[in-house]
């Protein structure tokens, strides 16, 4: 298989698919719409998990685990939520296979092993969790309940793409219960902010924080906060959501508490999640025609050392130096790998590490040893320089910081140069045809207008930015009054 | 709900169930046989995961993720494995719900949304993984393939118990592919040894390493290594297994490689796993009538500090001291919590921490402040002493080590005093009626004898110990020749 990727200019979608597979991030499986996350891709996901988990714990949340299955009677209890997920869910109906009398050695579903009640494979866990919370909450002393779960979920999507939209995906889902509406709203906003911080500081992905319009909200939510990112092809990607659920689930599952005055009241809820979809955002924000580009914070190996040698003697001498470099770097919490595989030539190793987005590559040859130097190559700028071995650790620490900051800056510049203020619908349509990105435009606040615009242009309202200027204007489509600009875009 | 547990002597099984629920480890859910793992229980599981994950990575394994579902045609490909799991598996047959015309507002399975091929919710992942490995292995250069997955699996067990046997459980499953039979056998033994080290050094649970008999092997394995532990009630518990799968899955899924001579050959396989069942082993090895007893290595909080105060002034002074203690302890990587809840009295806090197995409790009152002392209580021995505040960190470090070692020693003494060498079947039956534990006896090596003994006594061969003396003898049941003693027991 050729390692060379289709270029982004030629076919962005093909470039993406090829990159995911060739960089060993993920691949399609024998199960329709379900992916296999390969070790290298999973190592990046583990880095994301570790950082998010830390941030959740620092904000007072605890992990727990709830069942994979939701009995149909619980699934349908909160009607809007049920309606939102009913059309794309995997349903377990039987619990046993038997020998197939028509095909010796093969199996069939045992028709007598039918479940009394069907089980839905969780597309999201509000139903099973709120049914459990009923037993956990009696009084205000039990609140707030701040729970998170790392889990797999299944949504039977018809059109799937690796990481971006898969039938099964991995995610975390936070579920919290509060005494008051204000506290729940604060929690929903706080967790959206945690996601924004994570996206910007660790993934180097700039995001707009905002609220979803009613038609784009999570099924069962009263308000949905989101972080929206812009991909290199000018399409937006929803990278995380945090929902204020009001008392909807508390009422559907009868979760009441005795408040400080001794009166029974329904609790207030939030839920929030990010998923392996973030891998797609990561790829489409930073990568180039040579492959993946990783911010150092998420790189499984921040540095790889490649020996260039002809004799065993040279290799031994290089290995000795490499061991010292590795020990120094690890002392500074830099992850580093010595790629001393004898099955691959240096050129092939360079190409692989480029494809897999290793931030820094250090090459050491016999001449370097004599000169007390090494060659260091940056993945982000594709530049190389020869540096003194004695300064290497300091140089690497500086470069990793520079790369992390540089990737964010570059993505931010791209994003900011792809937000266009638009005041007429002609211009709106032109922009979507010619160049893409976010369109900042006035909207009259109605679902009708939103639908019409979507129908005509395929663009949706990505969010009502939290930092929206309350600037009066007229709707770009209907000409009716508007309170401020919202962000439109075509989206993943 | 009373916090007091049924005593072990009164009803061991009831004691176990009550402890799991009252110590906030887990509870039953609305889904038959599936549990909710509560935050405190999950925090212990996270500690196990972190340590095991580290040990897997240190032995060269990488994590990946494979689909939850196994298409039926793949599930049935390895016949013995399929047969072993066919009778207890959850089967997805449909992918959509619709409005139920007979029950307004409710849903039913859409009969038109039937899958062409049924999907089995993985009871174990050999089938889907080996189907994937086919694409990953071409030459000996691609081997060994050393993969691990942290995942949920489902086995539709009819009789379930929290942690010990649940329809859904969490586990890790290692899956490896090798060039040679010898290498795969070494891997299977190595990983069983990793489990034994983990059980003994981190969980403080002594285990016997051994091989399963043919009838107790994993379905599809040529050899199953295991670690067997002994619970306080004298029943054995299989705590982990590691399988040598021969070329069975390679043949079923056509996974071949070009060997060093350029010839095509099937690869050799292993798989190995431990699960949330370990939580059950942990509980039943160390705990007592007051609740959970945790080895410090797995305790979410190794130390809890409880302030004893009457005035806000006292609390402030105690808080200041507690903050210093916490900072010192955290500097030594000791996990510690200051239980300054105002909703609970000290007695209630003591009882809760006892129930939840916190290894060390430090109580600080106003008089302690004046004397420069604190009271420290051990959960394992239930002893208390007053110690100088100035030595506290050193004392705590010493005690944590002492507790960890002491718990293992106690469990080892119990286990060793519950292995009885038996040479007649009368004695064999007597022991199982009177006292329990492992019986070390000669066996003629046949499945017939094994079945007969099980039928008569309910005891099974837990393992053929790796350290078995090759001592010739005669079978305790049949009188036929035997090559050495094996371990029998009733088991969970």
From TrEMBL, chains A, B:
EC number(s) given by UniProt: 6.1.1.15
An annotated Gene Ontology molecular function: proline-tRNA ligase activity
Swiss-Prot/TrEMBL catalytic activity: tRNA(Pro) + L-proline + ATP = L-prolyl-tRNA(Pro) + AMP + diphosphate
Keywords: Aminoacyl-tRNA synthetase, ATP-binding, Cytoplasm, Ligase, Nucleotide-binding, Protein biosynthesis
Pfam families hit by this protein: HGTP_anticodon, ProRS-C_1, tRNA-synt_2b
Subcellular location: Cytoplasm
Keyword match Nucleotide-binding: yes
InterPro entries per record: aa-tRNA-synt_IIb, aa-tRNA-synth_II, aa-tRNA-synth_II/BPL/LPL, Anticodon-bd, Anticodon-bd_dom_sf, Pro-tRNA-ligase_IIa_arc-type, Pro-tRNA_ligase_II_C, Pro-tRNA_synth_II
TM annotation in the entry: none
CDD domains to which the protein is assigned, alphabetical: ProRS_anticodon_zinc, ProRS_core_arch_euk
Enzyme class: ligase
Positions of the Aminoacyl-transfer RNA synthetases class-II family profile domain: 27-295
Chief location of this protein within or outside the cell: cytoplasm
Subunit-level organization: Homodimer.
Job description of the protein: Catalyzes the attachment of proline to tRNA(Pro) in a two-step reaction: proline is first activated by ATP to form Pro-AMP and then transferred to the acceptor end of tRNA(Pro).
Free-text comment on this protein's domains from its UniProt entry: Consists of three domains: the N-terminal catalytic domain, the anticodon-binding domain and the C-terminal extension.
Family: Belongs to the class-II aminoacyl-tRNA synthetase family. ProS type 3 subfamily.
Stated name of the protein: Proline--tRNA ligase
Gene this chain is encoded by: proS
């Amino acid at each position: 298989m050729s390692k060379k990727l289709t270029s982004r200019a030629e076919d962005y979608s093909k470039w993406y698919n090829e990159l995911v597979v060739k960089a060993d991030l993920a691949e399609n499986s024998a199960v329709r719409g379900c992916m296999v996350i390969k070790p290298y891709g999973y190592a990046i996901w583990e880095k994301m998990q570790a950082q998010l988990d830390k941030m959740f714990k620092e904000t007072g949340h605890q992990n727990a685990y709830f069942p994979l299955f939701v009995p149909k009677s619980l699934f349908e209890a909160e009607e809007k939520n049920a309606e939102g997920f009913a059309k794309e869910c995997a349903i377990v109906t039987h619990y046993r296979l038997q020998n197939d009398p028509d095909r010796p050695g093969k199996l069939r579903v045992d028709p007598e092993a039918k479940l009394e009640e069907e089980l839905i494979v969780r597309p999201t866990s509000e139903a099973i969790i709120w049914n459990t919370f009923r037993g956990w909450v009696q009084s205000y002393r039990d609140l707030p309940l701040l729970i998170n779960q790392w889990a797999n979920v299944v949504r039977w999507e018809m059109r799937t793409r690796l990481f971006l939209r898969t039938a099964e995906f991995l995610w975390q889902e936070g579920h919290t219960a509060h005494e008051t509406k204000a506290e729940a709203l604060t929690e929903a906003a706080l967790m959206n902010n945690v996601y924004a911080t994570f996206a910007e500081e660790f993934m180097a992905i700039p995001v707009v924080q905002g609220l979803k319009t009613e038609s784009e909200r999570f099924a069962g939510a009263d308000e949905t906060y989101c972080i929206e990112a812009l991909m290199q092809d000018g399409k937006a990607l929803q990278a995380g959501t945090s929902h204020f659920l009001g008392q909807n689930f508390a009422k559907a599952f009868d979760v009441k508490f005795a408040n400080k005055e001794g009166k029974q009241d329904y609790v207030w809820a939030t839920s929030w999640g990010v998923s392996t979809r973030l891998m797609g955002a990561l790829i489409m924000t930073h990568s180039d025609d040579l492959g993946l580009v990783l911010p150092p914070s998420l790189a499984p190996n921040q540095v790889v050392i490649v020996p260039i040698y002809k004799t065993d003697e040279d290799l031994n001498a290089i290995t000795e130096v490499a061991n010292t470099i590795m020990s120094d770097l690890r002392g500074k919490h830099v992850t580093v790998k010595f790629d001393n595989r004898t099955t691959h030539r240096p050129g092939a190793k360079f190409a692989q590490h480029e494809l897999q987005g290793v931030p820094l590559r250090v090459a050491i040859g016999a001449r370097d040893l004599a000169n007390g130097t090494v060659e260091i190559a940056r993945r982000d700028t594709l530049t190389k320089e020869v540096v003194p071995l004695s300064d290497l650790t300091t140089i690497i620490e500086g470069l990793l910081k520079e790369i992390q900051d540089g990737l964010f800056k570059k993505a931010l510049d791209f994003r900011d140069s792809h937000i266009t203020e638009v005041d007429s619908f002609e211009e709106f349509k032109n922009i979507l045809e010619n160049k893409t990105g976010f369109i900042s435009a006035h909207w009259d606040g109605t679902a009708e207008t939103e639908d019409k615009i979507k129908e005509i242009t395929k663009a949706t309202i990505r969010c009502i930015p939290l930092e929206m200027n309350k600037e009066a204007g007229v709707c770009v489509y209907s000409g009716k009054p508007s309170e401020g600009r919202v962000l439109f875009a075509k989206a993943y």
